[in-house]
Amino acid sequence: MRLSSLLIVFASFATAALLSLVAASFSADLIEDSSQRSVKRELDARGLDWTEVYAEGLQVFLAGVAPSEADRFKAMSAAGGIVDAARVIDNMQVEAAADIAPPRFSVEILRNDAGISLIGLIPIGADRADIVDQMIDLAGRPNVTDLLETAEYDTPRGWNTALRFSLSALDILPRAKVSVQAGAVSVTAMADSPEARRDLEAQLLRRAPKDMRLDLDISAPRPVITPFTLRFVIDENGARFDACSADSEKARVRLLTAARAAGLTGSAECTIGLGVPTPSWAEAAEMAMAGLAELGGGVVTFSDADIKLVASPGTDQPLFDRVVGELESGLPDVFALNSTLPPLPDTNESGPITPEFTATLSPEGLVQLRGRLPDDLTRQTTESYAKARFGGEHVHMAARIDETLPANWPVRVLAGIDALAQLDSGALEITPDAVSLAGRTGNANTSAEISRMLAEKLAQNDEFSIDVRYVEELDPVAALPTPEECIAGLQAIQTDQKILFEPGSGTLDASAAQIIDAVAGQLRECPGLPLEIQGHTDSQGRESMNQALSQTRAQSVLTALQDRRLLTSNIVARGYGETRPIADNGTEEGREANRRIEFVLISPEAGDGDAADAATDGADTPDNTATDGTAQSGKPAAPAEDGAHPPDTPHDDADAEETGTESTPNDTN
Q1: How far is Cα 360 from Cα 358, in angstroms, rounded to an integer?
Q2: Residue 185 pairs with which residues in a beta bridge?
Q3: Fewest Cβ atoms closer than 10 Å to its Cβ: which of 316, 367, 516, 640?
Q4: Most confident stretch, 107-116, 143-152, 416-425
Q5: 230, 213 in Cβ contact below 8 A?
Q6: Helix, strand, or coil (residue 639)
Q7: Which residues on neighbouring strands pair with residue 599, listed in sequence order?
Q8: DSSP-assigned beta bridge partners for residue 535
């Protein structure tokens, strides 16, 4: 009985345990299935359908190949939002990363009066030392800051072209920021004047390779014009500006439009600057020019807010009165008008009126002062002032004393001499009625500057006339030789002279100094000329030794030019060895002609090695020379000579003393 009771109790516990195990197993399966489905559903909803999910007990395992580390993290976060993050086991992998893309190579070149700074990342293949050396040539070693870094990647296409252009352009950019990228250059700079800005832009555009993008942002500060001057003339030669000033582009357009309506033909310049006395400047000038046109001739001069109108002699008096009256009532209040109607000249007088004082400036710079001055002190002052402006040895004083001259005579004389000093040649005439100046100049703005100067220094009732002609041949900028003329000059230097090297060496002979001086002088007249100094040899000797010798000699010439303080950032030295003959190597005369140094213009279109094809000496390209400037395989054929030296044996030719545009080779065979 007691045993049966124990069996019943044991059986009850066993049954309960079995039922608990079954319930626990069922619950675990339910939790696994629920967790797996919920996590998978969330991952799919987030677009992470590449994941594989399976559960084991309370743990949720994530597998699969994630496109990136970020996607892997997203999957872990998404699963952790459904179940406890501690239950999520990461069995995922990440796709192998592709090769890292090369960095963006770029250089910022900053140049100002303090020096040059180089900042940026360049490819390992770029010649960093050469870049820095070119900057040192421009600014001097202490003034160049090298902050460049390099990366071991291939040089991108267009990088070398852009960098070469940027470095060569810096010799005409004393203050600039140049940004360099592969195939593109951006230049931000400031010019001293609008004319200088246009000249800079033209030079840079001419130098830019055709396959490179060039962005220019060159600004020019507006000049301060004092006094703010406008002078408009209508005479028998038509209408013209002696001076024109405007405070804005809009005002400039208004003034030129009004001038054309008054009879101006052709082009005209109007300087935009600071210092306008009133915003009504253009309005007043329009009215005055229209009034002058209605009178039929004369001169109207603005000097700040003072206006002086002088009608042509013989103008109808009622017409003059009406036009002047309308101007006086219509002009803005700030302006003061002084009007004059000169009488007709007395026809009974015989011959022209003799000027009371004259000063003439010859093209050679000689100045003659004649006529009348009021006293000895004024004569001494005038002579001293003229000598200060033109040089003491160039001035001849021949004026006499006349105490009856007007009180303002000295001021008019000194102002006239100041104006005459602005010309290359000319004549000044001063009479009691007017100051007249005529001459030639190489500066297109001289007439406006003289008008401004006389308007400021002369009294308001003093009349003056200006007849200044711009001559392009006198313009130092316009007179610069063209690249072709520069090359012709270099060739002329070498027509009867040769650059000598020491026998069997790349060292310049002492007698070459005079020729190098002449070459340097020619290059100073051709600033920024892109030039290649080429070394050439004949075909005797080993090709490799001839190549090395030609490079050494070309570099020696470049170094000699640098020693003469010539800027050479735009000049390269390159040896071509025996690959570019211009004559038959089978004769002594031909070999002599082939041993040479040449100066060749580098055209913007030419790539590496193309400069020789741009030579202007008219030589034909030999058959053994490739059109891209590189030698084809093999040596130029040359008949064997009696007594030729064995191959690879250096020797000195008997004529080793000659060069010119030529250099003598180290090895011949």
Answers
A1: 7
A2: 180, 214
A3: 640
A4: 416-425
A5: no
A6: coil
A7: 533
A8: 575, 597
Residue-wise DSSP of 390-420: H-GGGEEEEEEE-TTS-TTHHHHHHHHHHHH
Bridge partners of residue 191, in order along the sequence: none
The CA-atom distances, in angstroms, between 123 and each of 110, 118, 165, 521 are 20, 14, 17, 38
Q: Which domain holds residue 237?
A: 229-340
The arithmetic mean of pLDDT across residues 598-627, rounded, is 51
Q: How many residues does the chain have?
A: 669
Alpha-carbon distance of 241 to 228, in angstroms, equals 14
Q: Please tell me the number of Cα atoms within 13 Å of 250 on its side-chain side.
A: 4
Task: Write the secondary structure of 422-445 as one string of H (helix), E (strand) and C (coil).
Answer: CCCEEEEEECCCEEEEEEEECCCC
Helical (H) or strand (E) element with 286: helix 281-295
Q: How far apart are the C-alpha atoms of 560 and 552, rounded to whole Å? A: 12
Q: CA nearest 177: which of 185, 187, 190, 162?
A: 187
Residue 348 located in a structural domain: no
Query: Domain check: are 604 and 621 in the same one?
Result: yes
Residue 360 has φ and ψ, to the nearest 5°, of -115, 140
Would you tell me how many other CB atoms lie within 10 Å of the CB of residue 546? 28
Answer yes or no: do 126 and 235 share one domain. no
Tokens standing for residue 477? 């900028």
- Say yes or no to pLDDT of 283 above 90: yes
- Eight-class DSSP state of 224: B
Q: What is the largest CA-CA distance in the chain?
A: 176
One domain for residues 82 and 180: no
Q: Is residue 224 part of a domain?
A: no
Query: Distance between CA 510 and CA 508 in Å, rounded?
Result: 6
DSSP string, 592-636: HHHSEEEEEE--TT--TT-GGGG-SS-PPPPTTB-TTS-BPSSPP
68: CB partners within 8 A, 6+ apart: 94, 95
CA distance 116 to 170: 10
pLDDT tens track for 479-526: 677 888 888 888 888 887 778 777 777 888 887 888 898 898 888 888
Q: Is the peptide bond before 345 cis (omega within 30 degrees of 0)?
A: no
What is the rounded distance in angstroms from the CA atom of residue 664 to the CA atom of residue 233? 67
- Strand pairing class (176-181; 106-112): antiparallel
Same domain, 138 and 63: no
Measured over the CA atoms of residue 549, residue 553, residue 555 and residue 559, the dihedral's sign is positive
- Cα(244)–Cα(517) distance, integer angstroms: 45
Of the candidates 353, 462, 354, 363, the one whose C-alpha atom is nearest the C-alpha of residue 413 is: 462
- Do 253 and 139 share a structural domain? no
Q: pTM for this one? A: 0.48
- Orientation angle between helical segments 376-390 and 409-420, nearest 10 degrees: 10
Please list the residues that pair with 436 across neighbouring strands: 429, 465
Same domain for 83 and 120?
no
The CATH number of residue 83's host domain is 1.10.287.4300
CA distance 620 to 113: 46
